[in-house]
Design a protein that fits this description.
about 675 residues; mainly beta; 9-stranded antiparallel beta sheet; 10 helices; 31 strands; about 10% helix; globular; binds MU-OXO-diiron; binds calcium ion
Length: about 675
């Protein structure tokens, strides 16, 4: 029997193949000189790590060094003692962590009750979708106890949703047992939800019959806007204008704009398209698709829907991989794919209004050796007149980051026909880019050409409102070889990832240059070969691997959600770690929350009063080590609800302090 391959791992394994063939110069040996100037000293000597993807249990479980007495923590919570694996979530002492909504719960007023194990597209389109990733809170009337929660539904785990459905394996993607009904239910479980929520008597609940309630799915009508709208490469049989598309796919992290819209970011869209291009001649079109890993055939949708068969509709994949702007205040509004922000495997959309009024979005492209991007609007944000920002995101300049060994960096504009500072024009017809639409549809190829820095899987981004510094989570990159390290990606076989900080020159987020630093290098500080670097005041509970989503609180401290910790890899479940970002305590991390076994932690999001912290629990039961926990016909006693035939369900959890008050003083 072939090994169970959880979808989340399949996505990453596909990324392992590294579609980025670019050999942009790396910075190599200067690393040692740069690192020695840093004050985070633990484990700096080693820059190589153990060869195995999975650490031996003995190593993972080894007790770490006692934390050294450090500066007093500014976090006033007692650290959670880390758990390796458990069927429930855990929160630091003194807090409540209540499930707000789960997969299958009602979103629209007429939604039927959740029926475990019975895939039903007509029910699912009214119910909360699967695998909730990004969460954004939009206050109603400025309130922190009444607002809208916008939620991305990134992908589905068929083997956890449907009894008897064979899990996708690494050897077989014949999709035995998949029916049209199952596929359509999967499509309805993708996309996003808008729910109205209220806190009464200290407890949060979903407002029933809300006028804002909305489900967005893989079939929702959307508009394509910005420079790539109407482009020849965006036209299909169903849409000869290249301006309308149905659905959004694999929406991972995102952002909320200051005018209250939701930026939902399409990530691994390549997995939904069919018919491998391998047998085809390597045309320019096929090469461009390959740079995005498409088609990848992770889902059976192409069996029943021609538009997901890239041989039948070769341009359909070009219509995915965008940032989608959605107005949650108007459930009848048409979501817009904002092509000016580029097409790649989008992760976060951390943003800020620059001092001059222009809007700036920082974006990660989550694949091994891919890039960090910045988008700056031409126009200014108008906070007095919400409607004036309606199409602000359609005009502006997208740039990609180059990190230099001396701790500086530059933003390289992705503008068709524009000479660089040496007078060379790279993004030209001669190089395969006819116009700006081409540059944006093929953002990755354009960025390759400019010599951007190949990063260790850029995930979420956030701007620190106190300092203006920008954090980017680099989750891991097991494929970086010893000769491929550079100052910004200093570890070969970087299994555990790191967090990088970008400081715009002169505090100007539109400036062409920046300085940068590494806040934390993740992994166990007690294993020298890992080369981890936390502040030595970090306890054995405080270190973690694989940073993914993040949030910044009003004190400018960083809250990181992880994806990929497990008993075997790090001796701990995924969760939330709280990190000091400034002063002597910078780089100290503390464990705050942990997810149930097999789950990944997503969506950290504070209410404006900082009294509630919403988090998203994705794919509980999806364990790499033992196969899925919830196979319906083989009950696993480790999952408490299983006896009643209820599989583990992705959920949103509201964390509040017992007795009230801010999450962390
Ligand atoms: Fe969907 Fe890059 O995490
Ligand atoms: Ca992510
Ligand atoms: Ca993830």
């Amino acid at each position: 029997m072939s090994k169970y391959l959880p979808p989340s791992v399949a996505f990453e394994e596909a990324e392992n193949e590294s579609s980025n063939p670019s050999t942009n110069p790396t910075i190599g040996d200067i690393i040692a000189a740069r690192l020695s100037r840093r004050d985070l000293v633990k484990g700096f000597a080693a820059v190589t790590v153990a060869a195995e993807l999975v650490l031996p249990d003995a190593l993972a479980a080894a007790p770490g060094p006692e934390p050294v007495a450090g500066p007093a923590s500014s976090f006033d919570f007692t650290e959670l003692a880390v758990q390796p694996a458990s069927e429930t979530h855990h929160v630091a002492p003194g807090y409540d962590a209540d499930v707000l909504i789960r997969w299958g719960d009602a979103v629209l007023p007429e939604a039927p009750a959740f029926a475990p194990g019975k895939p039903d597209p007509a029910a699912q389109v009214k119910q909360f979708g699967y695998n909730n990733d990004f969460l954004g809170y939009i206050p109603l009337d400025g309130r922190s106890d009444h607002g809208l929660l916008v939620v991305n539904h990134e992908y589905t785990n068929g083997e956890l949703m449907v009894p008897g459905l064979a899990p996708r394996s690494d050897k077989d993607n014949s999709f035995t047992g998949v029916t049209r009904e199952i596929v359509d239910a999967e499509m309805m479980a993708h996309g996003g939800s808008v729910i109205e929520i209220k806190r009464e008597g200290g407890k949060w609940s979903v407002v029933k019959d809300s006028k804002y309630a909305r489900r967005i799915t893989a079939e929702t009508e959307m508009e394509i806007s910005g420079p790539a709208a109407g482009h020849d490469r965006m036209k299909t049989t169903a849409d000869p204008t290249g301006t309308r598309v149905r659905g959004m796919l694999n929406n991972c992290a995102g952002g909320v704009t200051p005018w209250g819209t939701w930026l939902s970011c399409e990530e691994n869209f390549n997995g939904y398209f069919w018919s491998k291009a391998a047998a085809e001649p390597l045309t320019n079109e096929a090469r461009a698709l390959r740079r995005y890993g498409a088609p990848a055939e992770w889902y059976a949708w192409g069996l029943f829907h021609d538009r997901f068969d890239a041989l039948k509709e070769p341009n359909e994949p070009n219509r995915f991989g965008w940032v989608v702007e959605i107005d949650p205040m108007d459930p009848a509004s048409t979501p817009k794919k904002r092509t000016a922000l580029g097409r790649f495997k989008h992760e976060g959309a951390g943003n800020i209004i620059n001092a001059d009024g222009r809007f700036v979005v920082y974006q990660g492209d989550d694949e091994r050796f891919d890039y960090i991007y910045r988008f700056v609007t031409d126009g200014e944000v108008d906070l007095e007149n919400r409607a004036a920002n309606k199409d602000l995101l359609d005009k502006g300049v997208l740039s990609v980051a180059r990190f230099k060994a001396d701790g500086t960096g530059e933003w390289l504009p992705l503008v068709h026909g524009q000479p660089n500072k040496d007078g060379q024009v790279w993004l030209s017809e001669a190089n395969g880019f006819k116009d700006q639409g081409d540059v944006l549809i093929r953002t990755r190829l354009a960025a390759d050409m400019l010599g951007a820095t190949r990063m260790d899987r850029p995930e979420d981004t956030e701007v620190n409102p106190k300092t203006g510094k920008v954090y980017v989570m680099l989750t891991n990159n097991s494929k970086r070889k010893a000769g491929e390290t550079d100052a910004a990606n200093p570890r070969a076989e970087n299994l555990f990832g790191h967090i990088i900080e970008i400081n715009p020159s002169g505090g100007d987020h539109t400036a062409p240059t920046f300085t940068w630093d590494i806040v934390i290098k993740c992994g166990s500080p007690s294993i020298a070969e890992v080369g981890a670097a936390f502040n030595p005041a970090t306890s054995e509970n405080g270190w973690f691997g694989m940073p993914d989503n993040c949030a910044v609180d009003a004190e400018g401290r960083l809250w990181v959600a992880t994806d990929g910790n497990s008993p075997k890899k790090t001796g701990r479940a995924d969760g939330i770690w709280a990190i000091e970002t400034e002063g002597a305590a910078r780089g100290t991390a503390r464990c705050f929350f942990q997810v149930p076994i097999g789950a990944e932690m997503c969506g950290p999001c504070f209410t404006p009063d900082l009294e509630t912290f919403f988090v998203a629990v994705q794919h509980p039961g999806e364990t790499e080590d033992d196969g899925p926990l919830s196979t319906f016909d083989a009950p696993n006693t480790r999952w408490p609800d299983f006896k009643e035939g209820i599989p583990p369900r992705p959920s949103v959890v509201a964390i509040t302090r017992k007795g009230g008050g801010k999450i962390a003083g």
